[in-house]
Give the backbone structure.
Amino acid sequence: MPGGEALTGPLLKAVSRSFFLTIRWLPQAMQDGVALGYLLARATDSVADTSSADSEEREQILSLMGEAVAGLLSREAESELLHALGGALAEAQSNPAERVLLCRFGECLQILRAMPEGQARLIREVLATIVEGQLWDLRYFREQSTVTDDAQTREYSYQVAGCVGKFWTELGLETMGKAFCDPARKQVMLEAGVRYGCGLQLVNILRDCAEDAARGRCYLCSSRSAWLGRAERYLRDGVDYSTRLRGFRLRFASMLPALIGLRTIQLLRQRPEGERVKVPRRTVYACMLQAVWLSSVQRAS
């Protein structure tokens, strides 16, 4: 990926130090694809969350970003998009790293065009799904303040996170083949990866429910305890998924978010509903040790 490391390395570290460390544990073959996919998704998420901009304006920019990733914009239209991203939208970001990310979105697109076709295709597919979920979020909560059924929660969780589990699995098989996992288990791993991603998103929803409500967004319309149980099951599926990968570094990088998510669920059950929880640093270190232990032995396929 010519020139990619100069952008994705430092910029990824700036926008997400924890995810940067996780990616560094991945086998080299997967690092570029995962890093670029994350940066593109983080850029679209930054636009979706720019509360100082009108929601219809954000919707328009998000749609154009999705088309740019898909390679559907003319050179003139892409130039206009990049100008818009580097202007008021970038200035509105409270996180300086996200400001830089929006200003350098065009470089991310150039790196995408230089990637091997198989990896580029997977990145475009997952970004299309993520942007679809972000657009739904903007459009739906422009008129409503809460979801009306569990199917909406499940679909949204898939669009913004479950699809990432699918992407992660397909990218691993694309770049590593049987060194990633048993190819005969591809469908089982794809389904488990989707559940894993959805579980991580449900933890985010459950943790942020008070803040989301203050913004006029409620992503759950049924029992909180039931969703906690579902999130826990999905994350345990994520641990199982990770143990079936091949190679210590791959298992460790895949497993750590699930273990931290499970500890977050424990805290959510212990605290009153609506109280913000954060996993202490010492607990993160404990999760890392647990991930090392569980990653040391590969389960039979």
Q: What stands out?
A: The chain is about 75% helix and 0% strand.
